[in-house]
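Support request from a user on the community tier.

User writes: "When I paste my structure tokens into the form, the page sometimes reloads and wipes my input. The last time it worked, I copied everything first. Here is what I submitted, just in case something in the input itself triggers the reload:"
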């Protein structure tokens, strides 16, 4: 055999070898991926032959499947439209599921190991047993109130979020992001129309698909004073400790003058820590932050959950399936040489500069204070129930996330935050026959834009925490924090109503 023929033979053998290797790769390693791919038409038809499990808030079905007459036998529907959208997510025919639909997809679709016995029975009977059902932690009244009040807020804000938690367990009682969206057009069986509907939402400047409750951060403004107070209390102060205040404070080493919101707010040179929080005295907290220093502030905010880049909210037994909550941060509080950056600390101590916080983090701060500084891990899935709606295949077992401070400090913070609601800037959050504590915040914005409004707080009955909440309104302008406090009160009333007034 001459050399050219030998070379051709070698090339052909190499090509056959590569073809053989590729076939083995496809069959042995990628076969299951291709077989179960959501883009495989046969897989889609088989998946939609089985009724997808319901998602429930209490006894109410907030995601269900209705029988159709087309190739895909069942259509996913969301009867409450936008009110639950960012919690539930959506399950399109083509494309990736989101929210609880994604986190619990295997169970809802009936392919989870927990439903193995049902699949065996199907093999014998030839039937398609429905998928499993997911029961959420949500308080229906609180969730729907949060959505209604956000959308119809009295300040005309178009962007915002609400998070409500059960402080004793970490159960998410409400989670709403505004603007929201109707998930129903995204799951229709006409995939072309579904894609068009998705593209229209995804291209909007106001990002309705973004869950702002967990995925976006803003300056927390005066709500951050709660953490500065915690740092001071943990360093030996008490609510009656007298601190420096006054009408103005010049940030050390700069010409920047920090003022209070009004001339009649803490005009005297001295004020108690409790009264400083009650009236939201900027000059007192700017001075106090500088006195405490970067290390003390950083240790405190981390203890309450800032800089936690691993936090997820979903099913406590499978948290790796849930998206991470955006990290709340203070930004650098030290200089390049490692010393305290006093001007930045002063401004950061009133929740400005580079301090950024998610609404979820705000609710976690309030919940841990209500719960003696035991911050519970937040979760959304309360139970996984079999297709027969009787067998409970999973029941959540609450877990502590961290200890944020001592019970003594927690009690002092509750006293101070209760004064804010009873005597100060948070009066609109008051609830008859309940002890409500909280803190408002008005975050400065660009020169040509309105300020943001915040409220974080809690409600207690007979010394026991009932709910904790965070409300954020973007570009709410004058009175925005008061409106946030009012909405918070309404949401906590919703929790109370669903708990039978307890």
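"...and here is what came back when it finally went through:"
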């Amino acid at each position: 055999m001459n050399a050219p023929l030998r070379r051709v033979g070698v090339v052909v053998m190499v090509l056959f070898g590569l073809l053989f290797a590729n076939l083995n790769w496809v069959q042995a390693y990628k076969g299951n991926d291709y077989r179960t791919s959501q883009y495989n038409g046969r897989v889609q038809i088989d998946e939609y032959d089985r009724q997808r499990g319901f998602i429930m808030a209490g006894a109410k079905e907030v995601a269900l499947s209705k029988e159709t007459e087309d190739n895909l036998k069942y259509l996913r529907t969301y009867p409450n439209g936008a009110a639950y959208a960012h919690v539930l997510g959506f399950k399109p025919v083509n494309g990736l599921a989101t929210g609880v639909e994604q986190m619990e997809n295997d169970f809802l679709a009936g392919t989870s190991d927990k439903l193995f016995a049902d699949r065996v029975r199907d093999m014998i009977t030839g039937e398609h047993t429905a998928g499993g059902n997911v029961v959420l932690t949500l308080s229906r009244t609180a969730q729907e109130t949060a959505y209604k009040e956000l959308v119809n807020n009295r300040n005309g804000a178009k962007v915002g979020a609400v998070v409500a938690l059960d402080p004793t367990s970490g159960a998410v009682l409400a989670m709403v992001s505004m603007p929201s969206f109707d998930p129903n057009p995204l799951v229709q069986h006409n995939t072309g129309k579904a894609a068009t509907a998705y593209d229209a939402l995804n291209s909007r400047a106001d990002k309705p698909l973004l869950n702002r409750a967990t995925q976006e951060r803003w300056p927390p403004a005066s709500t951050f004073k709660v953490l500065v107070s915690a740092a001071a209390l943990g360093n030996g102060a008490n609510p009656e400790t007298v601190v420096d205040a006054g009408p103005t404070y010049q940030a050390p080493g700069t010409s920047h003058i920090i003022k209070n919101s009004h001339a009649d707010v803490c005009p005297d040179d001295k004020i108690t820590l409790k009264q400083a929080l009650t009236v939201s005295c900027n000059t007192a907290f700017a001075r106090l932050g500088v006195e405490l220093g970067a290390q003390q502030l950083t240790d405190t905010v981390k203890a309450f959950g800032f800089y936690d880049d691993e936090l997820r909210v979903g099913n406590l037994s499978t948290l790796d399936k849930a998206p991470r909550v955006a990290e709340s941060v203070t930004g650098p509080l030290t200089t390049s040489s490692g010393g305290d950056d006093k001007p930045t600390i002063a401004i950061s101590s009133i929740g400005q500069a580079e301090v950024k916080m998610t609404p979820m983090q705000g609710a976690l701060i309030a919940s841990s204070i209500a719960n003696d500084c035991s911050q519970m891990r937040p979760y959304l899935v309360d139970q996984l129930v079999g297709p027969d709606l009787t067998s409970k295949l999973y029941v959540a077992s609450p877990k502590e996330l961290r200890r944020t401070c001592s019970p003594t400090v927690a009690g002092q913070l509750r006293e101070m935050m209760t004064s804010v609601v009873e005597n100060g800037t948070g009066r609109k959050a008051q609830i008859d026959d309940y002890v409500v504590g909280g803190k408002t915040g008005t975050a400065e914005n660009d020169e040509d834009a309105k300020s943001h409004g915040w409220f974080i707080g809690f409600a207690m009955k007979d010394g026991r925490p009932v709910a904790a909440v965070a409300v954020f309104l973007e570009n709410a302008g004058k009175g925005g924090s008061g409106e946030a406090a009012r909405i918070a009160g309404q949401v906590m009333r919703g929790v109370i109503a669903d708990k039978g007034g307890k």
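Agent notes: The reload is a front-end session timeout and is unrelated to the input. The mean pLDDT is 92. The two ends are 94 Å apart (CA to CA). Escalated to web team.
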